[in-house]
Write a structure and sequence with these properties.
Elements: H1 2-17, E1 21-26, H2 30-36, H3 47-63, E2 67-72, H4 75-85, H5 92-105, E3 108-110, H6 116-143, H7 153-171, E4 176-184, E5 190-197, E6 205-206, H8 208-224, E7 227-235, E8 241-249, E9 252-255, H9 258-266, E10 281-283
Parallel strand pairs: 1-2, 8-10
Antiparallel strand pairs: 2-3, 4-5, 4-7, 5-6, 7-8, 8-9
């Protein structure tokens, strides 16, 4: 009877284990992997082997019915976390505690059976999105009041950016749209990306978080009077893709010419190198986004 009870308990624990969600802190970059090797308790010696082992573990947990999220493990942030928490960094327990922290505050993606080579770029992109959002939001918050009118510059800029974004949505028509808002604010160029589905009449489908990120980058450009542009690619059934966009100027949207759109779409924002144009794509002058707003608030 005792043996039967023990077997039942073990079986129940296996069932319960499937209910527990886990997080893996991934050293996606070889440089970060090398930085962690200074700790004796981190026993991996080769980054490729490490990645294979991580992928094997993910597959094993998934095959057993478990759920795992993957987070980017940053050695610098880890060292700071240990120093602030009074933890010894050269222990697996400390790394586990840091990974648990990442699960609540850092960029994470669920593992859904995809190859690690496909998951890592998506995870890095998510990290860049969060970093962009955090930076733009913090700058807007710190700018403070306008010297002339006393109103909060960040709040006014965000309101203006929200209006301009709404005007863009009003002007794009039906189709599947890929929007990129790029701003040069004195540090690395900031970008926010948004997909908008307006194929169904009078219906706009979009990710609200991504829309907020785009509006925030646009607001930062307005508040700091930085160079900024919104470029779209529109796809409609049976038609060639169309690329067009607007430059942000004097807190309004000025249509880019076809040649300016070509330069914006076919030049890498980070390296400045020319990117080959895609086939079956027309580079066009943007429609008027109707930016006249007599009742709106402006910074100047």
């Amino acid at each position: 009877m005792a043996h039967t009870q023990q077997g039942r308990t073990t079986s129940q624990r296996h069932i319960l284990r499937r209910e527990v969600a886990g997080t893996i802190g991934l050293l996606a970059d070889e440089q970060d992997f090398t930085a962690m090797r200074r700790y004796r308790s981190f026993t991996f010696e080769d980054h490729k082997t490490y990645l294979r082992q991580v992928e094997g573990l993910l597959k094993s947990v998934a095959s057993a019915g478990g759920h795992t999220t993957v987070a980017l493990f940053d050695p610098v942030e880890y060292a700071e976390f240990c120093a602030e928490s009074g933890l010894e960094p050269d222990t697996a327990i400390s790394r586990t505690r840091f990974t648990a922290e990442l699960a609540s505050i850092g960029p994470c993606l669920p593992y859904e059976g995809q190859p690690l080579a496909d998951l890592v770029p998506d995870l890095v992109e998510e990290a860049v999105r969060q970093a962009t959002w955090t930076y733009a939001s913090s700058v807007l918050t710190r700018i403070g009041p306008c010297r002339e009118c006393g109103q909060d510059i960040g709040r006014i800029a965000f309101a203006r950016a929200s209006y301009l974004f709404a005007r863009v949505l009003d002007s794009i028509g039906e189709g599947i749209h890929h929007l990129v808002c790029s701003a040069s604010t004195g540090r690395d160029p900031l970008q926010a990306v948004l997909h908008v589905d307006t194929e169904a009449p009078d219906t706009v489908r979009l990710d609200e978080t991504a829309a907020m990120e785009l509006t925030t980058v646009l607001a930062l450009a307005i508040a700091t009077d930085s160079a900024c542009a919104i470029v779209l690619r529109t796809n409609r059934v049976g038609e060639r893709s169309r690329v067009y966009g607007w430059q942000v100027k004097d807190e309004g949207l000025v249509p880019l010419t076809a040649s300016q759109v070509f330069d914006a779409y076919c030049v890498d924002a980070y390296s400045g190198e020319l990117v080959a144009p895609e086939p079956d794509v027309d580079y066009c002058t943007a429609p008027d986004a109707n930016t006249v707003d007599p009742d709106g608030q402006h910074l100047h």
